[in-house]
Structures are given as C-alpha cells and as structure tokens.
Amino acid sequence: MVSFSTVGSFNISLVATDAQGNSSSFPSTPLTISVVAQAIALPTFKSLPILTASSVNGVAQYTLNAEENVDVTVDSPDGSWITPMMRYNDLPLQPVILAKRGDEVEITVNNHLTSSNEETTAHWHGFKIPGVEDGGPDFPIAVNASRTYRFTMNQAAAPLWFHPHAHGTTATQVYKGLAGAFILTDDITQSLEETNQLPTGDNDVALLVQDREFSDDPNNTGRRNLVYSNTGASGMLGNRVLVNNVEMPALEVTTSQYRFRIFNGSNARTYDFALDNNSTFYVIGTDGGLLNQPELVDHIMLAAGERAEVIINFGDSFRQNIKLVSRAFSAGGGGMGGGGSSLANGDPFDVMRFDVNVETTDPVTLYTSLPNEADINSRLTEAMSETTRTFVMSMSGMGGGGMQFLINDKLFDIDRIDEVVPSGATEIWEISNTSNIAHPFHAHAIQWQILDRGASGGTLTPSKGIDLGWKDTVLVEPDETVRFIGRFDPVINIGKYMYHCHILEHEDNGMMGTFNVIQ
Ligand SMILES: [Cu+2]
Asked: What domains are there in the chain, each with its CATH number?
C-alpha cells in the first residue's frame, strides 16, 4: 500500500535484494504515478423554486400558505437529515417570485400556523408600495385568517425579498423558514441580458444565505430539530451556514461569468464574502438595483437583510474548486456572548464551493455603465432635502438581564407614531450607533441613496463605490454615522411604515419605530 499526501508525478518500482546483495527492480522501467487533488465530496447545490402565477385580467396572482411542521431535508457535509420547519406552500425550499417593473401583483397569504398559534404577515422588503400593503406589524394576519396584498411594481430591477413581520415573532418565523426572494426585472436589465451584457439562464443564480443550529442525533433517527437561542446581544447565530437550505453545497459551473444574487436572510449574522483564492469579482447591484458601473472588489460585507448582486468570472479556473467564504472581521462587543453559538459574528467559515468542471465559451461582456435613464443615475443631493431626521441606535443593560435595544432612547410601541413625513418629501435620515456592535438599519417604503458616512461627530466621507447603489438596509458600525437620502413618492408612499434594526432579535425586542407618511 502506497499513499501520497502531495500532488505531483512520482516514479515507483519495487526493488528486491537477494542474499548475495544483488538488487533487481520490477518493472525494469519505473511506473509513473500522477497524483491529482481530489475535492472533498460536498452536497449538491439546490436552486430555489420559482412560484408560478395565475394571471387574472393582467394581474399576477400568487398564494402563500404559511405552514408549520413541514418536514424539510437538510443536506450537509455530515450527511442529510429531516428537520420540521415553517415553509410557504409546504415547499422544500424558500420560493422565488419573479416580476417585472410595471406588473400588478396580488399575493394572498393564508396563516396556517395553528399549533404555534402565531400571527404572521408578509413584509415586502425593499418595495416602494403603500403602507397598508407593506405587511408591517400594524396589519397582523391572525391564525386561520388571510390577507391579500395588492401593489404595482414601480421601481428599478432589484433583488427584493419577503418575510414575516408580525411583532414579537419575526425572528422565530424567519428562523424556522418563512422567507422568499422576489426578483424584479425591468426593461434595462432585460436589454442587458438580450445583448449579452449580463449572464442569464443557468449563469444567473439566487443564493439565500441563512445560518442555523440543529440538535444532535445521537440515536441516528435521521431527524434533528432546529435549535434557537436568543441570549446576549448578538441575536441568533447558528453554527451551520446554509445556502438555499444546504450546508456547504457544491455548484458545478462552467468557465464563464455568473451572476449571483446574494440574499442575507440570516437573523443576525453579517458575512464578509470573498473567494478563497483571493480572486476579485464585480459587485453590480445592491439592495435596490444595479450600480451604474460594476465595482471590482475582493470582498463584500452583507449584514442581515442586505442583498448584493455579484459577477464571478470562472473563465481562467478550469478544473479548479473555488470556495465562497466569509472572512474574519471584528464584530465588536467582545465578551457579550454569541447567543451560545460556537460560530460568533466575525468568525471565518466556508459558505459554498464552485466546481469549475466544464469548459465553455462565455458569450457575456459585462456592461460598463447603465443607460442614462436608469433610476440610479438620478442622484439625490443634500440641497434637495427639506428635512434631516436623526436616529440613534443604542443598547442598555449589557452584561445583565433585560437587555434593551433602542432607537432614539425609545422601545417600539405599536400605538406610537415616531415620525410624521409629508407625502412627496425628500429627506435625509442620519443614523448613528452608540452601542458597541454593528446594527443594520432598515427603513421601509423606499430605496435610499447613501450621501456620506464616517465617525460620529467627525467629517463624513461622500459615498463612492458600492455605496452609490440603492439601499434599504445599511450596516452602521459602532460610533459611525451614515446619512442617506430618499424621496417619498407622492402617489405611492402613503400610510404607516417601520424603520428598525434588521437583527431580528433586536427588532422584536424594541429596536423599531413607526413613521407615518401623510398628505
Ligand atoms: Cu441591532
């Protein structure tokens, strides 16, 4: 038995020596052995299922049944098991809804969470729609009740998503599996695809990234339960990172460019995505749509609730296995506890692997700038704003029980209006963080442009690069101030909306407020 731990070519032969000391080799010409690296077998990547609509009078109609105790198969490098989870429509994976700008959409949500006995909603995260359709905690859907959301898509193509937003149960319902992607296209993205300036088809892949923790299975029953713990300041951090419900999947790719739409659907975890060979890649889009110009990076940080679209070119990587990883970063708040997880926020880990097994000719030459009429090219400037509102995120009670998560020193109160915004206003919202961990601030109703950011109390730096994209969720580091500017649509934006931290445990525990857009 001969074993090799090194990749390369080796010559081997057997040498026998007789009693007189004469040696002979067999075979007389040595065998040449080539040792190539064999990638570790990983579970197969799964694509998210696309929901089909019924079209009635030109309106795309969907039904989402919120179900509980759905037996879901979880694949991992340790094997597969069944876990009871919550799911829309009993689907094995979270679904995708596809729509185009201008589409009228009607989505009926039926609350079948009878044994949990929990209200739910579907919040349309990143959508520019009226407050009454927004799916916030002010319009809960009772058990066995339903609600039909109706809206028209009137914003740039974007990787939007949806998830429950009933007060106090958002974190656990998302954790148990209620969420979905909503991929919006428009004339600009369709034209870019048709002219081979964006990858399409199999080269356009949605990645829903969510961390989870599962119970052990000492008796090999093939079943494990989700483990949820919310202690300390960090929110729920799982020790297994799932991409489309598979831990560390391998996706077979060709020697070409891929468009990955990355959704951070985690409760609390921030990822610093990079490739393990340190290759660069392009960021082409943020929460609310495409960047005017692709931005070449070697990593991108995404907090809970944030999305990004990236282009990875595997053209020079034939026969390579490339990992998408999350790099180590400083998450602050040392010693405050990681919710019991063995994988703290900021720890490095692998996310998935790309196996470049097929050679092909790539038809795509990536766009270099969007047409002038793209929404993102209408930059909002400070002079356009009538009002600057300030929001300070803070935590109190650290180290002891009863941790409080506050915005402007207030806990969420569903009966309180915190801000009144005139319809059609253009406003600057200035968000600061006086706590010692980062918080992703999310505001409903519109997409924002980041004006500038920097150390609180210091000179803020005007946005550049990825920060020039449309944003609905922005990570605010400790002692950082971010200013974003947005225009509330005078026709669409009316009614009550939420702003909150998108660490769902913080949101459920008070780090949320209500703003009312009035005429
Ligand atoms: Cu927070």
From this structure: 1-38 (no CATH), 54-193 (2.60.40.420), 199-358 (2.60.40.420), 380-518 (2.60.40.420)
